[in-house]
């Protein structure tokens, strides 16, 4: 699956704050467990790992650094040797040193997972591809919430998730299964 020997794992916004937006209609309720499995395999293979957390500029947000929900979820707590980047925009490359770190690590391929499919994951995938990285997104390791369209129609979380992944696949990334991804890392 990978053409290089050092694909990096980039985990986006897997913080306790995401649970404060969940009305119970999120798709992939086990995404964090899948991310934890991928993270474990990356650790075992001693591959580069970056954790990205969102630091909202708005004090009332659960993503604000002063919020008790700003911390990473238990499934994705960084270890000492793993790099942590803090962003305040939707894309993990804006205002961070993520690109420089990936270049320093000799990375040409990235696996991007986390939340939300239609927000920070989408924005980060697009920029990563624009920067020249080969990008992979394991479909079960990201999630979306439902949306109310501007015309008043409702879009279920599963549809939001697959519309965004379908739009990204082929041009910006390769959407794959977590199992296929895990089988290609030793």
How would you describe this protein?
By secondary structure, the protein is of the alpha/beta class. It has one domain: Isochorismatase-like (Rossmann fold), CATH 3.40.50. Helix content is 28%, strand content 20%. It has 5 helices and 9 strands; from the N terminus they run βαββαβαββββαβα. The chain has helices at residues 31-44, 98-104, 117-130, 157-168, 178-183; strands at residues 8-12, 49-54, 83-87, 109-115, 134-138, 142-143, 147-148, 154-155, 174-176. The strands form 2 sheets. Strands 1, 2, 3, 4, 5, 6 and 9 form a 7-stranded parallel β-sheet that branches. α3 (117-130) packs parallel to α4 (157-168). The longest helix is centred in the first third of the chain and has 14 residues, at 31-44. The radius of gyration is 16 Å and the shape is globular. Keywords: Hydrolase. This is Isochorismatase family protein.
Layout of secondary structure:
Layout: E1 8-12, H1 31-44, E2 49-54, E3 83-87, H2 98-104, E4 109-115, H3 117-130, E5 134-138, E6 142-143, E7 147-148, E8 154-155, H4 157-168, E9 174-176, H5 178-183
Parallel strand pairs: 1-2, 1-4, 2-3, 4-5, 4-6, 5-9
Antiparallel strand pairs: 7-8
Helix pairs in contact: 3-4
What is the CATH class name?
Alpha Beta
CATH-derived topology: Rossmann fold
User: How many domains comprise the coordinates?
Assistant: 1
Helix content: 25-40%
CATH architecture label name: 3-Layer(aba) Sandwich
End-to-end separation? 12 Å
Q: How many DSSP E strands?
A: 9
Approximately how much beta-strand content do the residues carry?
Answer: 15-25%
Major beta-sheet overview? 7 strands, parallel
Low-pLDDT windows of residues: none
Principal-axes shape call: globular
Rg from alpha-carbon coordinates: 16 Å
Structural class: alpha/beta
The number of distinct helices, counting runs of at least 4 residues, comes to 5
- How do the helices and strands follow one another from N- to C-terminus? EHEEHEHEEEEHEH
> At the fourth CATH level, what is the homologous superfamily?
Isochorismatase-like
Mean pLDDT: 96
InterPro entries: Isochorismatase-like_dom (IPR000868), Isochorismatase-like_hydrls (IPR050272), Isochorismatase-like_sf (IPR036380)
Domain Isochorismatase-like: 8-146
GO molecular function: hydrolase activity
Protein name: Isochorismatase family protein
